[in-house]
Hints:
Chain A is α+β, with helices and mostly antiparallel strands. Helix content of chain A is 36%, strand content 28%. In chain A, a hairpin with a 3-residue loop joins strand 1 (6-13) and strand 2 (17-25). The N and C termini of chain B lie far apart (67 Å). Among the domains of chain B are: 71-143, Ubiquitin-like (UB roll), CATH 3.10.20; 146-298 and 313-319, 3-Layer(aba) Sandwich (Rossmann fold), CATH 3.40.50.11690. The chains are: A alpha+beta, B alpha/beta. The A-B interface holds A 51, 55-56, 59, 63, 92-95, 110, 113-114, 116-120, 124-127, 159, 162, 164, 167-168, 171-172, 175-178, 180-181, 184 and B 1-3, 5, 8-14, 16-17, 19-21, 25-27, 29-31, 33-34, 37.
Amino acid sequence: MSSKTTVIGAVEIGTSKVTALVGEYTGREIVIIGCGECSSRGVIKGSVVDFRAATECTHSALESAERDANERIDHVYLAQSGGHLEGFYNEASVNVKAADNMIEADDIRTVCDLAKAKELPLGRLVVHNIRRPFRVDGRLVPTSPENLVGQKLEVGYWTVHGQEQRLADNIHVIRGFNLEVRELVLSSLASGHMVTSLEERQNGVLAIDIGAGTTDYVLYRNGAPHTTGVLAVGGGHFTNDISLALRLTEGQAEKLKVRFGRAVVQARDRNDKVWLDGNFAIGDRQFSRHAIESVTAARAWELLEVVRKRIGHAFSPETCAGGVVLSGGGAKLPALAECAAKVFGAPARLGEAPSWVADNLRDPGYHTALGILYYGVSSLGDHSAATRRKGGFMRNVTRLFAST
Amino acid sequence: MSRDTQTMPETRSWREIPQQVRPRAMSGEGRRRMAMKAMRATVGACVFGLVSWGAWEMAAVIRENPSGMPDSAKTDRVKSLVLVTDGVLDKNWLARTLSVPADATLMGLDLDRLRQRVLGDPQVSSAAIVRNFPDKLTVRISERSPVARMMAQSGAEAPVMLLVSRDGVAFSGTGFDTAMVATLPWIDGVRLARVGKGFGPVEGMKAVSELLATAKLEAEELYRTWQVISLSRLASDGAIEVQTRGGMKVVFGTREDYLRQIARLDLLVDSATDPTRPIRQVDLSLGSQVPVTFGTAAPFIGEPPVNTTGAKQEQPLIEFPTLSNIHIDIKREL
Lengths: 404, 334
């Protein structure tokens, strides 16, 4: 065990807010020592559209986190989202070279290289190569197949790639604070890992993170990410729908959404009215609760329906016993789990942060940033393991987190 | 294997995005952090340097501090002198030069004075004296090596032979092998000036030593025949005159490459096969035009030239009417 502590930074540049967390990893556990948050500006649907505005709010959050932690960070793990992210699956197989058909490290390396080698369109860069479990003669091998006996070794990779300029913009916002981006982490993977358990991922689970501008999802099967995706639709669209339907400003619509929005229509009485402000001030108006619920429910249904269609046959209640887990700020919409259960035909629940997370960070809006911290710890563990070529302890730490 | 790994397409990763941004794209805080980082690196380097220097000085002080050493070191006599040299001087010379009293203690010795004594011998070019507690004195010297020799006479005293180093320092030459000394050519045509107990440096030895080194390396057969190197025309004409054991006089110019001149000389010597008409004088200082004088004189019997007397008997030149000045285009023949 190393007695040296490592300070890790995690940043999520979201559409509604920028979150920066500072964690101190002691080699055994991670303690969140700093948190900074700032309302997001210059970011639309997860992409930076105004560099200066995005820089100002991100740097403000980073400064706040550093001040809170009373520590200086030199590098960060950065969440990556946005409609430009796409994924594809590519698989490869090799015949085992050894005469006794025992799989060697060289076979594994070769099949992995082959599965990852896929030419991308111009201007696209790989963000993640997510490996699915190996197969030896069709037999599923969740861990390393080294030293197993078989004739044919297969593996597949789910490759997530994004547009070069948009990735560069996000990185340059961080670099403007003179910080190095150590790793780009897919938002869906970060939040998905936070709100699902190892057992759920093993049995199959769909994690959906509904943010303000985007909805990120990841489907886990056999303990590993199977499919990921990003929809450029989020909680902001709910607000926009109410604004258009009831002829309100964005602020007023947001207020109604938070107070009366629901993912499933509950109000039966169409004459049931609610006040916009409720303070009896001049200009305060009444709206039908049923109308508000109808708008938000329709959008929620549509959003989840699109996710279901995107995933296609990969998700089915039979293969995904873990059901659907919802997270992100948009998941706070009442009855969203009920709606998801209906759309997917599987049990659905709201994701919760692990028990070790402090109360002020248990809000669904922090799941992604927390997941990035977790990812940073894991990668530190991987690095140590690679250095020591053993990694027993780090694996235990990873299990410790996984079990939470 | 289903596919050849050598032909796999290159997939580009986000890591290929350069993370450097221009300072103007940074926020004020970013620029401040960058400046602080640079300042921290500079301060760190300075602190490291200071600490290293301090440690070095501290070690030196501890090493030489009399209070930190055992009392026996202050009272014990010097038991051994160690000479570390790159030349030929020996312990006898060291003992004679230092003249350390028998009851001297290590701390009682004045190292600066001893060093001056060692450097008083012009054969020594540099010296360092170190106390090695409890009872050892180490003298580390670097010696001059001779490239030529000369006879010097002062007043009515008998002439003495001196060796001359590459940098022109004349010294008596203690401990050198006589056979090696006998191979060194004599220097002539210079006047030595007294400086203290020794002599001032011989002017022009840089050019001479360069010529000798080139000859020794490239044409050792020729070099072995060289007996006297005269510098009498060096200052005025930029010429070095070499008298060989066979009586031939060779004039080298200091303005042209010595290797080229030696090559021309070698060619001339090889070309002159008639023993009845030996080459008497070769002037290589005129470039590609080389005047050669033939003669029938008897071989030069070398008596070492004594400097400061200056009287040297010139052998008469016998010039052939038709071949007295042959201009040979060495460049073409070469």
